[in-house]
Amino acid sequence: MKTTRILMGMPITVEVLDSNDESLVESVFAYFTHVDEVFSTYKDTSEISAINAGRLRPEEASVEMQTIFAMAEQTRQETDGYFNIWRGDRYDPAGIVKGWAIANAADILRLAGCANFYVDAGGDIEAAGHNDEGLPWRVGIRNPFDIRQIVKVLEISGCGVATSGTYIRGQHVYDPYAPGRPIDEILSLTVVGPNVYEADRFATAAFAMGRRGILFIEQLAGFEGYLIDAGGQATLTTGFGRYVLS
Amino acid sequence: MSQRQPNRPSPLLRAVKKYSVSAFVVCSFTAYAVHERMIGADATAAAAASQAPSVAVARQVPLPPTITPAPRQIAPGRSTGASAMLPPAPPTAEPTAALGPYKDGEYTGPIVDAYFGNVQVKATVQNGQLADVSFLDFPNHRRTSVRINNYAMPYLTSEAIQVQSARVNIISGATLTSEAFAQSLHVALESAKS
To answer: In the list A126, A138, B66, B185, which could disulfide-bond A106, CB 3.0-4.6 Å?
Structure first.
């Protein structure tokens, strides 16, 4: 059963092989809707907007919000400050909320006994078990020069995949050390990690590091990366090949 | 982050590495800038050539992933328990794009101007529900130059990207321009309504 919805401004797809329970998939989408209502900086009614408007103090916020703030702070420390949800005048936790929400959505499916599924939100993916051919899920890496194409095919099972890039939303990745500097030397950085939360936060931080980001991923045990630069050249971490089909 | 500690070299080694990497990057960019100035217009033709689709390479036998899942760092929040503790709130409003019923078929949205170029989507409806969204037009990056470097990052391998033809289940990429995307999709789905 495969379903796509547009939520949080992006297509979210859930495919589950071992269940035809529509209410289960509904509960996954309801979870994303809930996350959006709490964390969307585009919604005046969200909790994060209340914090940014000074109507709510962070320390008085919900458990979920406290969790996100704690995880963001931890990630900031682990990435030499390259990951930072503070934008000088407001918080934008989107860089950590998305991966966290996908990982939680995958947990909803696991708790319901599903073993073969994926959750894809805007190109960040948690994939479990196998596809309908009994093989690992095949994940294509989008070509930053032409989004109708893929430039790498991975076999993924029991991990998370996240791609950070500039090619479509413009320079939405923020370098806290040079807020005005466009990050234009690299176009796309895909990270495979133990789960999508981990892959996403480190992909976001490493992308902000520019070309050095792939070295950061190389140093992380349990993570592999594929970086595409503005010249159409890709750089691979040493263990990335184990996921590559073609 | 204890799981990363074993990989860390000594502070001295790190400092040396850091500075050599920095120097390397600075030199590379100087060379790149000079190179850019010199070749200029050649880039477009070369880019077109290198974007030609290639036949997918023969299937390799992938090794099974050997990573061991790292424990999630902040257990209270990012644990299985947390999602159980925080039951999803029922959606207060159905997402507009999910409002059916639609007629089965494929529907093309209009081309919408996005920051980097145009976005146009095709919506596929199966059993009255949105089943897939694909792209017909897209913001295109002009390739600034081709193979500006033959260097790889220190000790990392590098390759020219090649278009693959293998079928995939999922695509990983940067999040799409949400507004342009939503506009094109909205119109595509309007035409899918009965």
So the answer is: A126
Nearest CB among B82, B149, B163 relative to A149 is that of: B163
Q: Read off the CATH number of the domain in which A25 is found.
A: 3.10.520.10
Q: Is A68 on the interface with B (CB under 8 A)?
A: yes
Number of domains in chain A: 1
Least Cα distance to B66 among A139, A242, A161 occurs for: A242
Inter-residue contact A211 to A185 (CB < 8 Å): yes
Chain B environment of A164 (Cβ under 8 Å): 174
Residue A112 near residue A93, CB atoms below 8 Å:
no
Return the DSSP state at A176.
Answer: T
> What is the DSSP-derived secondary structure letter of residue A245?
-
What range defines the domain where residue A105 resides? 2-243
Q: Which residue of chain A is at minimal alpha-carbon distance from B86? A: A64
Per-residue pLDDT of chain A (246 residues; tens, 9 = 90+): 899 998 888 889 999 999 999 999 999 999 999 999 999 999 999 999 999 999 999 999 999 999 999 999 999 999 989 999 998 899 999 989 999 999 999 999 999 999 999 999 999 999 999 999 999 999 999 998 887 889 999 999 999 999 998 754 444 455 666 665 555 578 899 999 999 999 999 999 999 888 889 999 998 999 999 999 888 889 999 999 999 999
Interface touch A233/B174, C-beta < 8 Å = no
Domains of chain B: which residue ranges? 1-39, 98-146+159-194
Higher pLDDT, B101 or B85: B101
Give the per-residue pLDDT at B107: 85
A17 interface with B at CB cutoff 8 Å: no
Q: Is A188 on the interface with B (CB under 8 A)?
A: yes
Residue with tokens 């130059």: B145
**A&B contacts, CB < 8 Å:** 327
| 3 state SS for chain B | CHHHHHHCCCHHHHHHHHHHHHHHHHHHHHHHHHHHHHHCCHHHHHHHHHCCCCCCCCCCCCCCCCCCCCCCCCCCCCCHHHHHHCCCCCCCCCCHHHCCCECCEEEECCCEEECCEEEEEEEEEECCEEEEEEEEECCCCCCCCCCCCCCCCCCCEEEECCCECCCCCEEECCCCCHHHHHHHHHHHHHCCEC
Residue in A closest to B70 by C-alpha: A194
ipTM score here? 0.90
Chain A touched by B102 (CB under 8 Å): no
Q: Does B61 touch chain A (CB under 8 A)?
A: no
Closest CB to B185: pick one of A6, A100, A172. Answer: A6
